[in-house]
Design goal:
Shape: globular
Radius of gyration: 24 Å
Structural class: alpha+beta
CATH superfamily of the largest domain: Zn peptidases
Strand order of the largest sheet: 1-2-6-3-7-17
Distance between the termini: 17 Å
Largest sheet: 6 strands, mixed
CATH class of the largest domain: Alpha Beta
Number of helices: 14
CATH architecture of the largest domain: 3-Layer(aba) Sandwich
Strand content: 15-25%
CATH topology of the largest domain: Aminopeptidase
Number of strands: 18
C-alpha cells in the first residue's frame, strides 16, 4: 500500500467536488452525439466544443509538466492527447471517450433531462456522465494525487477519443499515428466498463463480441387486403420468425452450437465468487415489470449467460405501420434488425458469415430473404494478471472500498479493446468503471455514482503507484 488512505480520500473528495463536477456538468449540457447518431457532427461543432472544454480544464488543473494537445485529421473525430512524464520505468496508457449516445429525451423520468445535469445525493444524472465523460477527469485526478503525496508513477499517456459509441472507427488510426509518443505501455487503464455493485473495485476480465445486421423477408410486390390473401400468401413476419428459430430456441432462448464456446474453468470459478457477492442483488438491477421472471433464477447461471453465452435481441423493425394507423393489410415485407451477442473468444467475422448462411438457406415458401451484415465486433478476454498487478488491485480495493476486488466478465462489447490489444499485445489491462446497478447508460436516467467515481479514481492512483517491471 502506497497512498495514505485518509489524506488521499480528503484530497479526492475536495478535488472532485470543487474542480471536476462543475466542468462535468458543463460537459453534460453539450449535445455531442457520436457520429453514428449525428451525421452532421462535424458541421454543428458540438464535438469540438466538448473537446475544447475538456482541453481547457486539463490545461488549468493538470500537472505543470503535462503536454496537452487536441489532434484532428480530416474526416475523423478529434482526440485529446495528454503526456505526463513519470519517475518509474515504463509507461501506462489511460483511455476514455467523450462522445455520447442519443439522449432519448422522452424516456427520462419526470424532473430529469439528458442535457441538464441534476445531482441527487451521490447520483449525478445526465447523458455521458458515467459513459464515459468522467474518465479524463479521473485519470488526471489520480496523477495529481500521486504528485501531491510525492509518490512516483510511470510516464502516462492519456488518450481520449470521440468515436467510441460508433464502434471506435478512428481509434486504430490515431493509435498508429501516436505510437511513438505512446511508447510500449506495460499497463493500459480503461475506465469505460462496469461494476457489479458499488461496494468494491470491479475488474472486467472479458467482454462479449457482437454480430448483427438487418434481416429482410419479402413475399409480395405490394400490400394486399388481408382477407383476400391470408391463408394463401405466407406472412413475411411468420417466415422471419421461422428463420430466427434456426438461430434461437423461442422457448428457452438457447442459441445454436455454432455460436457457443468452451468456457475457461478460471472464469467459471471467478463467476462463482461473483455469484456469492451479488447473491441478493443480481436480478434487482434489471427493471422488470411486476410478475416477469428472469430467464434463469440461478445467479451463477445468470452470470454465465450474461458473460459467456450468446444471446439474440431484435433491436429494430420496419415494414410495420404504427398500430394506430394499421389497417387490415397483408404486408409485403418485414425487416428486423438483429443483435447477436457472442462469447468473448468466438471469431466474430466467422460467426457473422455463419449467421448469414443459416438465415438465407432454403427459406420457407421460397420467400426472398436478404441479410445485410452491419457489424462484427470482436470480444475480448483479459490476459492473466501478473503478481504485482493482482496485489495492487487488492490493495486498492481494500483501502478505498473496504472490500476485495472482484473479477467479472461483462455482457456488452467495447470495440476499441481489439485495437488496443492488437497494438499492445504484451500489456496488462485494468478495465474498470462506474456503470453499476441502475446507472442505465445508453438508456434513460443515466447517472454517475459520484462517491464510487471518487473511489475508483483513488484505486487507479494506487495501481499507478505500484507499477512494476
Amino acid at each position: 500500500m502506497k497512498l495514505p488512505v485518509l489524506k488521499s480520500r480528503a484530497f479526492m473528495d475536495e478535488f472532485w467536488e470543487k474542480h471536476i463536477l462543475p466542468t462535468l456538468m458543463d460537459y453534460v449540457r453539450i449535445p455531442n452525439q457520436s457520429p453514428s447518431f449525428d451525421p452532421e457532427w462535424e458541421s454543428n461543432g458540438h464535438m469540438d466544443r466538448v473537446v475544447q472544454l475538456v482541453y481547457e480544464w486539463c490545461r488549468r488543473y493538470g500537472p505543470k509538466d503535462m503536454v496537452a494537445e487536441i489532434i484532428r485529421y480530416p474526416n475523423r473525430t478529434p482526440v485529446l492527447a495528454l503526456e505526463i512524464p513519470g519517475q518509474l520505468e515504463g509507461a501506462a496508457l489511460l483511455y476514455g471517450h467523450l462522445d455520447k449516445q442519443p439522449p432519448l429525451e422522452r424516456d427520462w423520468r419526470e424532473g430529469l433531462d439528458p442535457r441538464i445535469p441534476i445531482r441527487e445525493g451521490d447520483k449525478l444524472y445526465g447523458r455521458g456522465t458515467a459513459d464515459d465523460g468522467y474518465a479524463v477527469f479521473a485519470s488526471l485526478a489520480a496523477l495529481l494525487l500521486l504528485r501531491e503525496q510525492g509518490l512516483a508513477h510511470p510516464r502516462c499517456f492519456v488518450l481520449i477519443e470521440c468515436s467510441e459509441e460508433s464502434g471506435s472507427p478512428d481509434l486504430p488510426y490515431y493509435v498508429e499515428k501516436l505510437r511513438e509518443r505512446i511508447g510500449t505501455p506495460k499497463l493500459i487503464v480503461c475506465l469505460d466498463s462496469g461494476c457489479g455493485n458499488y461496494d468494491q473495485l470491479w475488474l472486467t476480465t472479458s467482454l462479449r463480441g457482437m454480430i448483427g445486421g438487418v434481416l429482410t423477408v419479402e413475399v409480395l410486390e405490394e400490400g394486399i387486403h388481408s382477407g383476400d390473401g391470408s391463408g394463401i400468401v405466407p406472412s413475411s413476419f411468420r417466415v422471419a420468425r421461422s428463420l430466427l428459430e434456426r438461430v434461437e430456441d423461442q422457448n428457452t432462448g438457447q442459441i445454436r452450437s455454432e455460436f457457443q464456446v468452451s468456457i475457461p474453468q478460471q472464469r467459471v470459478e471467478q463467476a462463482k465468487m461473483v455469484a456469492k457477492a451479488l447473491e441478493s442483488t443480481f436480478f434487482s438491477r434489471f427493471p422488470f415489470i411486476s410478475g416477469v421472471m428472469p430467464v434463469t433464477e440461478d445467479v451463477l447461471s445468470g452470470i454465465i449467460n450474461r458473460t459467456w453465452k450468446p444471446a439474440l435481441e431484435i433491436t429494430g423493425a420496419s415494414g410495420f405501420p404504427d398500430v394506430r394507423m394499421a389497417g387490415n393489410v397483408l404486408r409485403p415485407d418485414t425487416a428486423l434488425k438483429l443483435s447477436l451477442r457472442i462469447p468473448p473468444t468466438l471469431d466474430a467475422k466467422v460467426a457473422s458469415k455463419t449467421l448469414k448462411q443459416i438465415l438465407k438457406f432454403e427459406p420457407p415458401y421460397g420467400a426472398r430473404v436478404i441479410y445485410e451484415e452491419e457489424w462484427d465486433v470482436v470480444g475480448w478476454e483479459a490476459p492473466p494478471f501478473v503478481p504485482w498487478l493482482h496485489g495492487a488491485l487488492q490493495d486498492a480495493s481494500g483501502a478505498f472500498f473496504g472490500n476485495p476486488a472482484m473479477y467479472y466478465g461483462e455482457g456488452y462489447s467495447i470495440p476499441f479493446m481489439s485495437a488496443l490489444v492488437a497494438s499492445f499485445p504484451n500489456a496488462q489491462f485494468v478495465v474498470t468503471g462506474v456503470v453499476g446497478p441502475h446507472s442505465n447508460v445508453h438508456g434513460p436516467n443515466e447517472f454517475l455514482h459520484v462517491e464510487v467515481a471518487k473511489r475508483v479514481t483513488l484505486c487507479i492512483a494506487e495501481i499507478l503507484a505500484q507499477v512494476r517491471e
